[in-house]
Amino acid sequence: MPQDYEIVIGLEAHVHLSTKSKAFCASSTQFGAAPNTCTDPVTLALPGTLPVANRVMVEYGIMLGLATKCEIRRSNRFARKHYFYPDLPKGYQISQFDEPICERGSMTIRTAESSRVIGIKRIHMEEDAGKNIHDPHCGASYLDLNRAGVPLLEVVSEPDLRSPAEAVAYLRTLRQLVRFLGISDGNMEEGSLRCDANISLRPRGEMSFGTRTEIKNINSFRFVEKALEYETVRQIKLLKSGRSVVQETLLFDSQTGTTHPMRDKEESSDYRYFPDPDLPPLRIPESWIEEVRSKMPKLPEQRYHDLMTVYGLNAYDAGVLTAEREYVDYFEEVFNHCSNAKSACNWITTEVFAKLRKQGSNQPQDVVKAAHLGSLIRLIDQEVISGKMAKNVFEEMTSSGRDPKEIVEKQGLKQITSEGDLKTMIVNVLERHSQQVGEYLAGNQRVVGFLVGQVMKASSGSANPKMVNQLLQKELDLIKQKNKDS
Amino acid sequence: MFKAEDTLKIASLARLAPSQDELLVLTKDSNAILEYVRQLETLDLTGVQPMSHVHGVTNVLREDEPEPSLTVDEALSNAIDTHDNFFKVPIIIE
C-alpha cells in the first residue's frame, strides 16, 4: 500500500430487498424462476399501466435508515431516470433523486486494526432492471424480465473509506446488517448485493480530493478488494509518472484481475431526472417510523456488545457468533439450556461449525437442536459424562437427531463417578504396573500421567478424569507412606 | 434562448431524428414554452415549495402480495423476436 498517497473510496451498494412482490407491481420476485415467468403488464411497460409502490419496500427503507442512524425524510418522492437499454422496458428507471427516503447516517465498521465510523450520504429506493444474456455468435442478446422491477435500496457512503480492506469490511457490515434486519439475503453471488466503487488518490495531508474513477458492478467481496487494489496501483503509477487520472467508468474483469474503461453509453450521464407523475409522493409520519422501529430486531452491533458484557465472551468469539443472526440466536438458545456461555460458544464454533461447513449450510438448528446441545453441555458440567464421551454423543445426536440424555441412558455411557468403583479400578491398575509405581517412588512424577491413562483405558473412557486424578494421587501417597513406614 | 443544437441533443437522447423543418418548429415551440414558464420569474416565490404533483394525493401503496404472472407466451406476445422463452434483441455490447 502507498506511503505517500492516501486512498479515498466511496461505495454505492445496491441491496435487493426480500419482498414477495416487486417494487411497483404484484409480480413475484422469486429468484431463479424460469425466464419471463414473473411478469405482468407493469413489468413489461405495456401502455396504460400504472405503478403502485410496495408498502413493505418503503418500510424496509425506513428500517435500514433507522439502523444506520439516518434522518428519515418525512416527505420524499420517486423520480424517473431516463436511459435506453433493452433490459429497461419503460425507457426509464423509477428511482429517487432529490428527495431520497434516508439521508446523513453512519455505520461502524471493524477491521483488524481498528473500528471506524463511516458516513452514509443517502439511501434511496429504486427498481432493478432485467437480465441480459449476450450471444456474440448469433449477434443477439436474450432478455429475461423476471428481475425487472424488483425493489432495491441503494446505499451511498461518504468517501470515508481509506483502503480496499476497509471497503470490504464496510460491505460485510452492510450485508450483516440487512441480514439481521431480515430485509435482504445479502447474497452477492445471486446479485442480491452489488456494488459500484469510486476511488481516488491524494497526497497525504492534502484536503481536496483527486480525480476519481468509478468501477461498476462488482459482485463479490473478493473482487471488490482485488478491483480496488488493482485500481490503486494503476492510479499511483499514473500520478508518480506525472500523468493524471482520467475520470471514467471502469469494469473489473475477474478473469484477468484488471480494470478497463466501459464503452461510453453515449451521454449516459444525461439522465433527465424528473419527479414521476405516476407515483404520488410519500409522507412518512412519526407514527409510521415508530411502528417500523418497534418491528426492528436487535442490531448486530448491540448483540456483539451483549455477547461480551452479558455473556462474558471475548471480542473474537463475539465477532464470530455475530457473523450471522442464526448463529447468535442459536448461541442464546443453547445458553438458555445450559447457562455456560464459554462452553456453548466452544461447541458451536468448533463442532457445530464443522458440520455446517460440511453441509454448506448456515442453519445451526439443522445440525442439532439448540435445546439438545444445551442439555449435552449440562451433562458434561454435571459430570454425568466426560468431554471425550460427549464428542461421541454429539456425533450420535447429529446423525439420529435424538436427545443426548436418551443416548447416554440407552448406551450406558454414564461416567463412572462412584468412588468405590474407581478405587477398585485404580488398585488393579497399580498392581499390574508395579514397575511404574516403583519409578514413581524413585521420584519420577511423569509416570502419573501414564497411570491415569491406564485407568481411563480400563474404564473404556467412562471414568471421571478429575476423580481418577485425585484418587490415584491418594493411592500413590498411601503407598509412599507405607514404604516409608516399613 | 433554446437553440437548434439544444433541440438536437434532447432529440438524440430520446432517440428521435427530426428533419430540418421539424427541428425549426420544435425549437420555436420549446422557446415559446420556456417563455411562458418564465413568467414565474416575475413573482416573489420565497418560501413556496416547487409542486411536483397537482392532485394532493399521498401514500398510495399496495400490500406486498404477489399475484399470478402472465404466461411466458402472453409476456412474449408483443416481442419482435424471441428465443427459448427470452426476448431476442440485437446484441448489446458492454
Q: What share of the residues of chain A lie within helices? A: 40-55%
What value does the Rg of chain B take, in angstroms? 22 Å
Structural class estimated from helices and strands of chain A? alpha+beta
The low-confidence runs of chain B, each spanning 5 or more residues with pLDDT under 50, are: none
How many angstroms does the end-to-end distance of chain A come to? 76 Å
Polypeptide structure, described:
- The complex is a heterodimer of chains A (486) and B (94).
- Helices cover 41% and strands 20% of the residues of chain A.
- Chain A is of the alpha+beta class and 486 residues long.
- A nine-stranded mixed β-sheet of chain A has the order 3-7-8-11-1-12-13-14-15.
- The mean pLDDT of chain A is 90.
- Chain B has a domain of 45 residues: Histone, subunit A.
- Helix content of chain B is 35%, strand content 10%.
- Chain B contains three helices and three strands.
- Classes of the chains: A alpha+beta (486), B alpha+beta (94).
- At the A-B interface, β2, α1, β9, β10 and β17 of A face α1, β1, α3 and β3 of B.
- β10 of chain A pairs antiparallel with β3 of chain B.
Summary, kept brief:
The complex is a heterodimer of chains A (486) and B (94). Helix content of chain A is 41%, strand content 20%. Chain A is α+β, with helices and mostly antiparallel strands and 486 residues long.
List the SSEs and their pairings.
The complex is a heterodimer of chains A (486) and B (94).
Chain A: E1 5-16, E2 53-54, H1 55-67, E3 71-72, E4 75-76, E5 79-82, E6 92-95, E7 102-110, E8 115-127, E9 131-135, E10 140-144, E11 151-157, H2 164-181, E12 193-203, E13 213-218, H3 221-240, E14 249-253, E15 258-261, E16 274-275, E17 282-283, H4 286-295, H5 300-309, H6 315-321, H7 325-338, H8 341-359, H9 370-381, H10 387-400, H11 404-410, H12 419-432, H13 434-441, H14 447-458, H15 465-485
Chain B: H1 4-13, H2 20-37, E1 61-62, H3 72-76, E2 82-83, E3 86-90
Antiparallel strand pairs in B: 2-3
Helix pairs in contact in B: 1-2
